[in-house]
Design brief:
Length: 222
Protein backbone atom coordinates (compact mmCIF):
# COMPACT_ATOMS: atom_id res chain seq x y z
CA UNK A 1 0.00 0.00 0.00
CA UNK A 2 1.29 3.47 -0.85
CA UNK A 3 2.21 5.31 2.33
CA UNK A 4 4.04 8.14 0.63
CA UNK A 5 2.78 11.66 1.18
CA UNK A 6 2.24 13.72 -1.97
CA UNK A 7 5.24 15.72 -3.11
CA UNK A 8 5.43 19.14 -1.54
CA UNK A 9 6.66 22.65 -1.96
CA UNK A 10 5.78 22.80 -5.61
CA UNK A 11 5.25 26.55 -5.95
CA UNK A 12 7.87 29.16 -5.30
CA UNK A 13 7.21 31.14 -2.15
CA UNK A 14 7.59 34.91 -2.09
CA UNK A 15 7.41 37.79 0.40
CA UNK A 16 6.08 37.23 3.91
CA UNK A 17 4.97 33.72 2.97
CA UNK A 18 8.56 32.88 2.02
CA UNK A 19 9.77 34.18 5.37
CA UNK A 20 7.29 31.95 7.22
CA UNK A 21 7.98 28.93 5.06
CA UNK A 22 11.76 29.19 5.26
CA UNK A 23 11.64 30.01 8.96
CA UNK A 24 9.73 26.81 9.69
CA UNK A 25 11.01 24.43 7.00
CA UNK A 26 13.34 22.54 9.32
CA UNK A 27 10.59 22.21 11.93
CA UNK A 28 8.26 20.92 9.23
CA UNK A 29 10.77 18.27 8.22
CA UNK A 30 10.95 17.14 11.85
CA UNK A 31 7.16 17.28 12.19
CA UNK A 32 6.61 15.04 9.18
CA UNK A 33 8.80 12.34 10.67
CA UNK A 34 7.37 12.61 14.20
CA UNK A 35 6.29 9.30 15.74
CA UNK A 36 2.63 10.25 16.04
CA UNK A 37 2.46 11.72 12.51
CA UNK A 38 4.20 8.69 11.01
CA UNK A 39 1.83 6.32 12.78
CA UNK A 40 -1.21 8.30 11.61
CA UNK A 41 -0.03 7.69 8.06
CA UNK A 42 1.01 4.06 8.47
CA UNK A 43 -2.32 3.20 10.08
CA UNK A 44 -0.68 2.24 13.36
CA UNK A 45 -2.93 4.34 15.51
CA UNK A 46 -6.03 3.42 17.47
CA UNK A 47 -9.30 5.30 17.71
CA UNK A 48 -8.78 6.24 21.38
CA UNK A 49 -5.34 7.70 20.69
CA UNK A 50 -6.65 9.71 17.78
CA UNK A 51 -9.48 10.88 20.05
CA UNK A 52 -6.93 11.90 22.66
CA UNK A 53 -5.14 14.04 20.08
CA UNK A 54 -8.41 15.68 19.04
CA UNK A 55 -9.27 16.23 22.71
CA UNK A 56 -5.99 18.07 23.24
CA UNK A 57 -6.53 20.11 20.06
CA UNK A 58 -9.99 20.98 21.42
CA UNK A 59 -8.35 22.49 24.50
CA UNK A 60 -5.92 24.44 22.31
CA UNK A 61 -8.63 25.76 20.00
CA UNK A 62 -10.89 26.64 22.88
CA UNK A 63 -8.31 29.39 23.44
CA UNK A 64 -6.85 29.94 19.95
CA UNK A 65 -10.16 30.41 18.09
CA UNK A 66 -11.43 33.23 20.35
CA UNK A 67 -7.93 34.75 20.51
CA UNK A 68 -7.86 34.97 16.70
CA UNK A 69 -11.43 36.27 16.54
CA UNK A 70 -10.57 38.92 19.10
CA UNK A 71 -7.35 39.85 17.27
CA UNK A 72 -9.43 40.24 14.08
CA UNK A 73 -11.73 42.67 15.90
CA UNK A 74 -8.73 44.69 17.05
CA UNK A 75 -6.50 44.67 14.00
CA UNK A 76 -7.52 45.16 10.38
CA UNK A 77 -4.59 43.06 9.12
CA UNK A 78 -5.90 40.04 11.04
CA UNK A 79 -9.43 40.72 9.71
CA UNK A 80 -8.01 40.62 6.18
CA UNK A 81 -6.74 37.05 6.47
CA UNK A 82 -8.85 35.39 9.17
CA UNK A 83 -12.26 33.95 8.31
CA UNK A 84 -14.91 31.63 9.78
CA UNK A 85 -13.43 28.57 8.11
CA UNK A 86 -10.38 28.95 10.37
CA UNK A 87 -12.46 28.25 13.47
CA UNK A 88 -11.65 24.67 14.40
CA UNK A 89 -13.40 24.23 17.75
CA UNK A 90 -16.87 23.30 16.41
CA UNK A 91 -15.23 20.93 13.93
CA UNK A 92 -13.19 19.17 16.61
CA UNK A 93 -16.24 18.83 18.86
CA UNK A 94 -18.26 17.27 16.04
CA UNK A 95 -15.36 14.88 15.30
CA UNK A 96 -15.16 13.83 18.96
CA UNK A 97 -18.91 13.26 18.97
CA UNK A 98 -18.56 11.04 15.87
CA UNK A 99 -15.96 8.97 17.71
CA UNK A 100 -18.04 8.95 20.89
CA UNK A 101 -15.07 10.32 22.84
CA UNK A 102 -15.45 12.61 25.83
CA UNK A 103 -14.91 16.36 25.40
CA UNK A 104 -13.75 16.56 29.01
CA UNK A 105 -10.06 15.76 28.73
CA UNK A 106 -7.45 17.23 31.04
CA UNK A 107 -4.68 19.21 29.33
CA UNK A 108 -1.36 17.41 29.00
CA UNK A 109 1.60 19.51 30.24
CA UNK A 110 2.50 20.38 26.62
CA UNK A 111 -1.09 21.42 25.92
CA UNK A 112 -1.13 23.68 28.95
CA UNK A 113 2.14 25.27 27.81
CA UNK A 114 0.63 25.90 24.37
CA UNK A 115 -2.52 27.42 25.93
CA UNK A 116 -0.41 29.72 28.12
CA UNK A 117 1.65 30.71 25.09
CA UNK A 118 -1.45 31.62 23.05
CA UNK A 119 -2.84 33.67 25.92
CA UNK A 120 0.35 35.62 26.47
CA UNK A 121 0.82 36.21 22.73
CA UNK A 122 -2.78 37.37 22.40
CA UNK A 123 -2.13 39.96 25.08
CA UNK A 124 1.34 41.08 24.03
CA UNK A 125 1.02 41.07 20.24
CA UNK A 126 -2.34 39.96 18.79
CA UNK A 127 -1.18 40.45 15.19
CA UNK A 128 1.58 37.87 15.66
CA UNK A 129 -1.09 35.18 16.10
CA UNK A 130 -1.03 35.19 12.29
CA UNK A 131 2.03 32.97 12.77
CA UNK A 132 -0.11 30.37 14.58
CA UNK A 133 -2.83 30.72 11.94
CA UNK A 134 -0.22 30.08 9.22
CA UNK A 135 0.84 26.81 10.87
CA UNK A 136 -2.74 25.67 11.46
CA UNK A 137 -3.81 26.55 7.93
CA UNK A 138 -0.65 25.22 6.27
CA UNK A 139 -1.04 21.96 8.17
CA UNK A 140 -4.32 21.28 6.41
CA UNK A 141 -2.26 20.47 3.30
CA UNK A 142 -0.67 17.42 4.87
CA UNK A 143 -3.69 16.72 7.02
CA UNK A 144 -5.81 16.15 3.96
CA UNK A 145 -3.55 13.23 3.14
CA UNK A 146 -3.45 12.13 6.80
CA UNK A 147 -7.28 12.20 6.82
CA UNK A 148 -7.39 9.84 3.85
CA UNK A 149 -5.09 7.37 5.59
CA UNK A 150 -6.94 7.62 8.92
CA UNK A 151 -10.28 7.10 7.20
CA UNK A 152 -8.95 3.80 5.86
CA UNK A 153 -7.22 2.59 9.01
CA UNK A 154 -9.96 3.63 11.46
CA UNK A 155 -12.66 2.44 9.10
CA UNK A 156 -14.49 5.74 9.04
CA UNK A 157 -17.20 6.80 6.64
CA UNK A 158 -16.66 9.74 4.27
CA UNK A 159 -16.78 12.96 6.30
CA UNK A 160 -16.85 11.18 9.65
CA UNK A 161 -14.45 12.57 12.32
CA UNK A 162 -12.34 14.42 9.74
CA UNK A 163 -13.73 17.95 9.97
CA UNK A 164 -10.60 19.12 11.80
CA UNK A 165 -8.10 17.37 9.55
CA UNK A 166 -9.84 18.27 6.30
CA UNK A 167 -11.72 21.51 7.01
CA UNK A 168 -11.87 22.78 3.43
CA UNK A 169 -12.61 19.59 1.49
CA UNK A 170 -12.53 20.19 -2.27
CA UNK A 171 -11.76 23.87 -1.66
CA UNK A 172 -8.38 23.04 -0.08
CA UNK A 173 -6.06 24.08 -2.89
CA UNK A 174 -7.94 27.29 -3.67
CA UNK A 175 -8.11 28.26 0.03
CA UNK A 176 -4.40 27.64 0.56
CA UNK A 177 -3.39 29.58 -2.55
CA UNK A 178 -5.58 32.50 -1.50
CA UNK A 179 -4.20 32.34 2.07
CA UNK A 180 -0.64 32.64 0.73
CA UNK A 181 -1.64 35.62 -1.45
CA UNK A 182 -3.28 37.32 1.52
CA UNK A 183 -0.17 36.80 3.67
CA UNK A 184 1.78 38.81 1.12
CA UNK A 185 -0.84 41.57 0.94
CA UNK A 186 -0.99 42.27 4.69
CA UNK A 187 1.70 44.92 4.75
CA UNK A 188 3.07 44.02 8.20
CA UNK A 189 6.19 45.83 9.36
CA UNK A 190 9.36 43.76 9.28
CA UNK A 191 9.36 43.54 13.08
CA UNK A 192 5.79 42.21 12.99
CA UNK A 193 6.74 39.68 10.31
CA UNK A 194 9.65 38.46 12.42
CA UNK A 195 7.34 38.18 15.44
CA UNK A 196 4.92 36.06 13.36
CA UNK A 197 7.74 33.73 12.30
CA UNK A 198 8.70 33.25 15.95
CA UNK A 199 5.09 32.44 16.85
CA UNK A 200 4.91 30.02 13.90
CA UNK A 201 8.08 28.27 15.09
CA UNK A 202 6.72 27.99 18.62
CA UNK A 203 3.41 26.69 17.27
CA UNK A 204 5.22 23.93 15.39
CA UNK A 205 7.20 22.98 18.49
CA UNK A 206 4.14 22.97 20.70
CA UNK A 207 1.99 20.86 18.39
CA UNK A 208 4.87 18.40 18.17
CA UNK A 209 5.34 18.37 21.95
CA UNK A 210 1.65 17.49 22.36
CA UNK A 211 1.96 14.71 19.77
CA UNK A 212 5.04 13.40 21.55
CA UNK A 213 3.35 13.37 24.96
CA UNK A 214 0.38 11.48 23.50
CA UNK A 215 2.68 8.89 21.92
CA UNK A 216 4.62 8.51 25.17
CA UNK A 217 1.51 8.16 27.33
CA UNK A 218 0.18 5.44 25.02
CA UNK A 219 3.50 3.59 25.01
CA UNK A 220 3.41 3.44 28.82
CA UNK A 221 -0.20 2.15 28.84
CA UNK A 222 0.21 -0.60 26.24
C1 LIG B 1 1.83 13.80 8.77
C2 LIG B 1 2.84 14.52 8.48
C3 LIG B 1 2.79 15.65 7.49
C4 LIG B 1 2.77 15.59 6.14
C5 LIG B 1 2.78 14.35 5.27
C6 LIG B 1 2.73 16.95 5.64
C7 LIG B 1 2.68 17.29 4.31
C8 LIG B 1 2.67 18.57 3.81
C9 LIG B 1 2.66 18.94 2.42
C10 LIG B 1 2.59 17.95 1.26
C11 LIG B 1 2.69 20.29 2.35
C12 LIG B 1 2.84 21.14 1.09
C13 LIG B 1 1.61 21.71 0.54
C14 LIG B 1 1.89 22.53 -0.72
O1 LIG B 1 2.52 23.59 -0.65
O2 LIG B 1 1.48 22.10 -1.77
C15 LIG B 1 2.69 20.78 3.70
C16 LIG B 1 2.71 22.10 4.04
C17 LIG B 1 2.66 22.56 5.33
N1 LIG B 1 2.56 21.82 6.48
FE1 LIG B 1 2.69 19.84 6.59
N2 LIG B 1 2.74 17.80 6.69
C18 LIG B 1 2.75 17.06 7.85
C19 LIG B 1 2.74 17.51 9.14
C20 LIG B 1 2.62 18.84 9.49
C21 LIG B 1 2.49 19.31 10.85
C22 LIG B 1 2.45 18.42 12.09
C23 LIG B 1 2.41 20.66 10.77
C24 LIG B 1 2.27 21.67 11.86
C25 LIG B 1 2.07 21.44 13.11
C26 LIG B 1 2.48 21.03 9.36
C27 LIG B 1 2.44 22.32 8.88
C28 LIG B 1 2.54 22.66 7.55
C29 LIG B 1 2.63 24.02 7.08
C30 LIG B 1 2.64 25.29 7.93
C31 LIG B 1 2.71 23.96 5.68
C32 LIG B 1 2.81 25.12 4.71
C33 LIG B 1 4.23 25.26 4.15
C34 LIG B 1 4.25 26.39 3.14
O3 LIG B 1 4.22 27.53 3.56
O4 LIG B 1 4.29 26.10 1.95
N3 LIG B 1 2.60 19.90 8.62
N4 LIG B 1 2.70 19.72 4.57
Amino acid sequence: MNTQAPSKYTTKATGFHKLLKEGTQELHDQAESGDFQTRMISGDIIRAEFGQFLGQMRLVHEVLDPALSHAAEQDQRVTQIFDESHLRLPRIEADLADLDISMEQQPLPATQTFIDFIQSTATASPVSLIGALYVKEGATNGNKFVAKRLRESLNLKEGEAMRYHDPHGKDQRRKWNRFKELLNELGLSSDEEVACVKVAQETFRMVMNISREISQSNTVVS
